[in-house]
Amino acid sequence: MATASRRWRRPGATTINFSEESVVERLNDLTHGKGPEKCIDAVSMEAHAGGSIDAVYDKIKQSLMLETDRPHVIREMMYVCRPAGTLSIPGVYGGMLDKIPFGAAMNKGLTIRMGQTHVNRWTDDLLRRIEEGQIDPSFVVTHRVDLENGPGMYKTFRDKEDGCVKVVLHP
After folding, report:
1. Pairwise CA distance, residues 78 & 35, whole Å
2. Where are the beta strands (DSSP E) in the chain?
């Protein structure tokens, strides 16, 4: 049986659900019209945009096998990030992207950092900090289950059900 440990909190970050509000308007409100200095696309090719023109365009191109990924988030980041800002893309893209406003990014002087997260580089330091009590990652754990319930819990995670963000499996 899965148990939700506590409501998902986002310390130090603001999450904007573009199906509920305008990303651009909310960011302008939060930054007094300057745009964020740093933007992160951690979802990448699995992003599901709403009914915006570019999202519909991407969906059509994907159905025709002319595009592999959903670059809506990258486009939005390039438009909203303030000049000389940084775009971080640890999420995974698998292939072809279309209609990326590269000129906007270049003219703003944006720094683009991307690549899969370098887990081996950070694991020892992060583990030490957790052990020393400097970092408490427990806020991200939403479910704890026995190992034999792992396959069912993966489906819950994959389908974004029951507020599932991170699962701890107990052997």
Report:
1. 10
2. 38-40, 86-89, 111-114, 143-146, 167-170
CA–CA separation, 94 and 45 (whole Å): 7
Q: Which domain holds residue 146?
A: 119-170
Residues 52 and 135 in one domain: no
Identify the CATH number of the domain in which residue 82 sits: 3.40.50.720
Tell me, yes or no, if the pTM score tops 0.70.
no
Instruction: Please give the biggest Cα pair distance in the chain.
Output: 53
Please provide the average confidence, as pLDDT, over all residues in the chain.
Answer: 84
CB neighbours of residue 118 within 10 Å: 9
Q: What is the pLDDT of residues 7-16, one digit of tens each?
A: 444 456 677 7
Give the side-chain half-sphere CA count within 13 A for 72: 20
In this structure, the answer to whether residues 34 and 86 fall within a common structural domain is yes
Considering the chain, what percentage of its residues have pLDDT values greater than 70? Answer: 88
**CB contact at 8 A, 108 and 83:** yes
Which residues are registered as beta bridge partners of 38? 86
Other Cβ atoms closer than 10 A to 132: 8
Taking 60 as the threshold, does the pLDDT of residue 5 lie above it? Answer: no
**107 within a domain of the structure (yes/no):** yes
